[in-house]
């Protein structure tokens, strides 16, 4: 199309997609063009503001490395990650809800036996975790693969702990014949998302908190069931109402029960107060 103007440019761009080989790609690109153009019109974007936005996205890309994905973090704080997750994981009300997986999952995690200590020797309030995996009829699901990982008492994951060479606070477990799995570790703490990049700039401009509430990540895979990617948050955490990545759901806020020093579960004696967390994970049938 020749001689486009502010009213005709949108349809001119959309017309160029008529020859797209993949219909789904054409559908996505058309919607992207329509919404992007509508955004520019709605806010009356100036050339200076457009250049600022391009600079922001360019610097975001430069921050991305094999160990840091600033674009995913940007997607997180804009709520896009949780929206995509919510659209793709609509389950029966009894099934455990999904949440964001976060950037700290690792494929090279060790497999541990039932009730093993996965703390890696790091110090903190002892945490005893007892999980149960069932189907939607509350029947146990045996031999489910259960990934768990969490931060330490200072809010650091093992990849960020100075001097730590081995994995810690993460494990691959298997549910037993009655659907149970368990581990011992240390209680995680709240922590800030990275604030030294473009996402940090955005959060400061919007006067939003960087602090994520404490949580334990859990991913459960079992044949015949939908994969669950979720996390559990302590009900007494100060940052539940302002999670910057919008991962908190009411059903995932649970009691991290505190107990006095003494004998903990599995005959493990503690010389300090400890936390006991019990939770049942309900899997939805695979729709495939």
UniProtKB/TrEMBL annotation:
Keywords, in A-Z order: Dioxygenase, Iron, Metal-binding, Oxidoreductase
Necessary cofactors: Fe(3+)
Gene3D superfamilies: Aromatic compound dioxygenase
Pfam families recorded: Dioxygenase_C, Dioxygenase_N
InterPro entries xrefs: Catechol_dOase_N (IPR007535), Intradiol_dOase_C (IPR000627), Intradiol_dOase_core (IPR015889), Intradiol_RC_Dioxygenase (IPR050770)
Iron as UniProt keyword: yes
Classification lineage: Bacteria, Bacillati, Actinomycetota, Actinomycetes, Kitasatosporales
Domain Catechol dioxygenase N-terminal residue range list: 22-95
Stated family: Belongs to the intradiol ring-cleavage dioxygenase family.
UniProt organism field: Streptomyces dengpaensis
Protein's name in the database: Hydroxyquinol 1,2-dioxygenase
Superkingdom to which the source organism belongs: Bacteria
SUPFAM superfamilies: Aromatic compound dioxygenase
Residue stretches making up the Intradiol ring-cleavage dioxygenases domain: 102-262
């Amino acid at each position: 199309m020749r001689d486009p103007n502010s009213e005709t440019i949108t349809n001119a761009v959309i017309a160029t997609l008529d020859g797209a080989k993949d219909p789904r790609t054409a559908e996505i690109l058309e919607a992207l063009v329509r919404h992007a153009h509508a955004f520019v019109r709605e806010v009356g974007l100036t050339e200076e503001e457009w250049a600022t936005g391009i600079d922001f996205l360019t610097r975001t890309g430069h921050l991305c490395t094999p160990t840091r994905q600033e674009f995913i973090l940007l997607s997180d704080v804009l709520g896009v990650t949780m929206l995509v997750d919510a659209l793709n994981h609509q389950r029966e009300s009894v099934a455990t809800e999904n949440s964001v997986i976060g950037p700290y999952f690792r494929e090279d995690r060790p497999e541990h036996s039932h009730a093993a200590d996965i703390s890696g020797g790091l110090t903190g309030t002892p945490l005893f975790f007892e999980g149960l995996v069932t189907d939607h009829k509350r029947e146990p699901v045996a031999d489910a693969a259960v990934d768990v990982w969490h931060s330490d008492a200072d809010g650091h994951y093992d990849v960020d702990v100075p001097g730590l060479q081995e994995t810690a606070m993460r494990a691959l477990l298997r549910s037993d014949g009655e659907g149970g799995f368990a581990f011992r570790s240390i209680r995680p703490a709240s922590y800030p998302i990275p604030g030294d990049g473009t996402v940090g700039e955005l959060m400061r401009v919007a006067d939003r908190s960087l602090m994520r509430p404490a949580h334990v990540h859990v991913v459960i895979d079992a044949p015949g069931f939908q994969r669950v990617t979720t996390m559990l948050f302590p009900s007494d955490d100060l940052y539940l109402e302002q999670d910057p990545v919008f991962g908190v759901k009411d059903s995932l806020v649970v009691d991290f029960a505190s107990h006095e020093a003494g004998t903990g579960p599995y005959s493990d004696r503690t010389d300090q107060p400890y936390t006991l967390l019990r939770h049942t994970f309900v899997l939805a049938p695979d729709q495939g």
